[in-house]
Amino acid sequence: MGKKKEDPEILAIKLEVAAELGLLDKIEQCGWGALSSAESGKIGGLLARRLKSG
């Protein structure tokens, strides 16, 4: 199964949330795979909340 293309708007929001949580440096240095499941969950939860509130 191939990698799906991510919407640039969602990626921008995801990076903004990561920056607010202090994780942006870690992502830039090591990539998204370096995040723990807890860190990824925090980003995902805040991202979903922002997308829902529009």
Tell me about this structure.
GO terms for molecular function: double-stranded DNA binding; helicase activity. This is Distinct helicase family with a unique C-terminal domain including a metal-binding cysteine cluster. InterPro entries: SASP_alpha/beta-type, SASP_sf_alpha/beta. The chain has one domain (10-53). The longest helix is centred in the last third of the chain and has 17 residues, at 37-53. The radius of gyration is 11 Å and the shape is globular. It is mostly helical. The chain has helices at 8-20, 24-30, 37-53. The model has no long low-confidence stretch (mean pLDDT 92). The chain is built from three helices and no strands.
Q: Mind summarizing the main beta sheet? A: none
The gross shape turns out to be: globular
Enumerate the spans where pLDDT stays under 50 for 5 or more consecutive residues.
Answer: none
Structural class label:
mainly alpha
How far apart the termini lie comes to: 31 Å
Q: Kindly state the mean pLDDT as a whole number?
A: 92
The tally of domains stands at 1
Order of helices and strands: HHH
Q: Could you tell me the strand content as a percent range?
A: under 5%
The total of beta strands comes to 0
What percent of residues adopt helix (DSSP H or I)? 55-70%
User: What is the rounded Rg?
Assistant: 11 Å
Number of helices: 3
InterPro entries: SASP_alpha/beta-type, SASP_sf_alpha/beta
GO biological process, one term: DNA topological change
GO molecular function, one term: double-stranded DNA binding
Protein name: Distinct helicase family with a unique C-terminal domain including a metal-binding cysteine cluster
